[in-house]
Specification:
This protein has 606 residues and is α/β, with parallel strands linked by helices. It has three domains: 15-101 and 576-606, Hemocyanin, N-terminal domain, CATH 1.20.1370.30; 124-275, Malic enzyme, N-terminal domain (Rossmann fold, 3-Layer(aba) Sandwich); 283-481 and 492-534, Rossmann fold. It has a seven-stranded mixed β-sheet with strand order 9-8-7-10-11-12-15, sandwiched between helices. A five-stranded parallel β-sheet has the order 2-4-3-5-6, sandwiched between helices. The two termini are 23 Å apart. Residues 594-606 have low confidence and may be disordered. It binds 1,4-dihydronicotinamide adenine dinucleotide, pyruvic acid and magnesium ion.
Length: 606
């Protein structure tokens, strides 16, 4: 991040990030605005021109020096949650420094600003709360939604909205209004991984109550203190949000995150044909997991036509994965979706899903004929023994569900089983890589939902000890690039073909393609390059499908990449250009975000 070349030929584009930044703020309001603040890095000229002399110690420092100091301060925080709150405070003070610190220490800090630590921050939201960030919409105040949303900018000023209703956060269930932190965390990743402009995003939580008794009984809980509102009132709430967001910010892409099982897919299907929207748990997880499976099959020298997939945990993510894989099989084999679904077995709490199991509509297409399984056991291990899958995916939130005997059963039936325990956070993984590799003598091809350290074992030639890196199979590999591509080409919808294109973008960058012992997916260290590739593929597919509405999209791939990179925000200090308050844009006046006063102990850099 930050090292990628900018291309002056695209500097005229509205989202271009080269050149000076207009700013109408001076003095303390400038120092307290996270978008403009440079702290000790304001230049001599800026200090004079923007009335900062006397408000800053005299030494003028570089961004690199600030990052050094911030990293030292970060390192003194005693645990990951303290590190997470330290970083949140820093983001409220100086966005460039925040993103530069993160990008310089990406591998170390990714898990602190995302899963698993962000899950802890969300669970403790009402306890660690200092100041709000994001837009809180209230189910009892539906009429105020247009007003509350309108505070975030003018019509063309918001590109990317993440919205949650807080019902099924990561793997930690209903977190009520604390869900706002998943919206902000996913937006941090869109900027960090794909350069979505941080001042043109909007995190939203739809507060409709919570069914989490612990929160309902917590005197400090900040959200609506009653059971979740459901049914027509809920639908009207969501619809008012969607329609208001569309009207106020017609260019914005809407990313749905961590909705509960009954609503996630229903809402996606309702809005997908009409607006540029995306459900990360269904579609993002489906895309990244398909890319991991394709890389695994490449290593085991098999094809999608050979795939036999068991998904354990047939909820939002599990069925999203099944859908994406089914469509890919259908395309490769040139067969119908129903036929392709026969290569997939879904297991949930009752065991294998068959036509005699109670099913939700999303699961129906995958139900196996009940008569085929009459009298047979349908638990995970029995299903593995009978159907002999080569890929096993876990999206159940049931820790340790992939027992030694389950994993050994996988290895019994296939030489190189692909085993993907994806349940977050870390403690909920169906198995840990160390065990899976131990139980399969290093044969399994593993990727996990949260990050794990590399695993050592005697799996090299002649029993030599080797260290195997395990890929993180998380939708964060792909959703930022899909969002970037969709935003830049101003897609009117996110089509299936755009998602397929995104999968191929990730799959072709899999390290395992060139080295069978390498991870199945590209790591966070190259995430910006992955996002450019995914965005390019998504834009090309959108153009081919006729849903790209932006003009002047370059056709040539190299120029298209330059066009994409120029519009990616980087954490660098741009020179500030003083403009008068009158006639200044909202952005120059610092009104693009509702900013309160800065509080808390963790201030590091002013
Ligand atoms: N790695 C990634 O990119 C992603 C991971 N996830 C993780 O996947 C997990 C599931 O998430 P969602 O699908 O959103 O939740 P969900 O609640 O929609 O689905 C979970 C499913 O697992 C089933 N389940 C629970 N206990 C089970 C058991 N003992 N045996 C069999 N099935 C069982 C539930 O009945 C439900 O159908 C979470 O831990 C989440 O963090 C979700 C999205 C992306
Ligand atoms: C990764 C993600 O989106 C989830 O665990 O819900
Ligand atoms: Mg999620």
């Amino acid at each position: 991040m930050g090292s990628q070349q900018k291309h002056p030929k695209f500097a005229h584009l509205p989202l271009a990030t080269s050149g000076p930044l207009e700013c109408a703020l001076k003095g303390t309001p400038l120092l307290t605005h996270p978008y403009f603040n440079k702290g000790s890095a304001f230049t001599k000229e800026e200090r004079t021109q923007f009335e900062l002399t006397g408000l800053l110690p005299p030494s003028i420092q570089t961004l690199e020096q600030q990052v050094d100091r911030a990293y030292q301060q970060y390192s003194t925080r005693h645990d990951d949650l303290a590190k997470n709150t330290f970083l949140s405070s820093m983001k409220e003070q100086n966005e460039v420094l925040y993103f530069k610190l993160l990008s310089d220490h990406l591998t170390e800090m990714f898990s602190v600003v995302y899963t698993p630590t962000e899950g802890d921050a969300i669970q403790n939201y009402s306890r660690i709360f200092r100041r709000p960030e994001g837009c809180f919409l209230n189910v009892h105040d539906i009429d105020r939604i247009p007003h509350d949303l309108s505070l975030w900018g003018h019509a063309d000023e918001i590109d990317y909205i993440v919205v949650t209703d807080g019902e099924e956060i990561l793997g930690i269930g209903d977190q009520g209004c604390g869900g706002i932190l998943i919206s902000t965390a996913k937006l941090v990743l869109t900027t960090l991984c794909a350069g979505i402009h941080p001042n043109r995003t909007l995190p939203v939580v739809l507060d409709c109550g919570t069914d989490n008794e612990e929160l309902l009984n917590d005197p400090l809980y900040l959200g609506l203190r009653h059971k979740r509102v459901r049914g027509d009132e809920y639908d009207r709430f969501v619809d008012t949000f969607v329609q208001s967001a569309r009207k106020l910010y017609p260019k914005a892409y809407i990313h749905f995150e961590d909705f509960g099982l009954p609503n996630a897919r229903r809402l996606l299907e309702k809005y997908r044909p009409e607006i540029p929207c995306f459900n990360d748990d269904v579609q993002g997880t489906g895309c990244v997991t398909l890319a991991a499976i394709m890389a695994g099959l490449h290593v085991s020298k098999q094809k999608l036509a050979d795939l036999r997939l068991v998904v354990f945990g047939a909820g939002t993510a599990g069925v999203g994965i099944a859908d994406q894989v089914r469509d890919a099989i259908a395309a490769e084999r040139n067969i119908g979706k129903d036929e392709a679904a026969k290569q997939i077995w879904l297991i949930d709490k009752p065991g294998l899903l068959t036509t005699s199991t109670p099913l939700n509509p999303a699961q129906e297409g995958f139900a196996r004929p009940a008569e085929e399984w009459e009298g047979s056991k349908t638990d995970l291990e029995s299903v593995i023994d009978r159907v002999k899958p080569n890929v096993l995916v876990g999206t159940s939130t049931k820790p340790k569900a992939f027992t030694e005997s389950v994993v050994r059963a996988m290895a019994r039936h296939t030489e190189r089983p692909v085993i993907l325990p994806l349940s977050n956070p870390t403690r909920l993984h169906e198995a840990v890589p160390e065990d899976i590799l131990k139980w399969t003598d290093g044969k399994a091809l593993v990727a996990t939902g949260s990050p794990f350290k590399p695993v050592k074992g005697p799996w090299g030639p002649g029993g030599k000890e080797v260290e195997l890196e395990v890929a993180e199979c998380n939708n964060s590999v792909v959703f930022p690039g899909i969002g970037l591509g969709s935003v830049l080409c101003r897609a009117s919808r996110v089509t299936d073909k755009m998602l397929v294109a995104a999968v191929s973008g990730v799959a072709e960058l899999s390290p395992a393609l060139g080295d069978a012992t390498a991870p199945l997916l590209p790591g966070v260290d190259v995430v910006r390059d992955v996002s450019v590739r995914v965005a390019r593929k998504v834009v090309q597919a959108a153009v081919a499908e006729g849903v790209a509405t932006e003009e002047g999209i370059p056709e040539d791939e190299e120029t298209l990449d330059e066009w994409i990179r120029e519009q990616m925000w980087d954490p660098v200090y741009r020179p500030l250009k003083l403009v008068g308050m009158e006639g200044a844009s909202r952005q120059a006046r610092g009104e693009m975000r509702v900013v309160g006063s800065i509080g808390g102990r963790d201030q590091s850099e002013l």
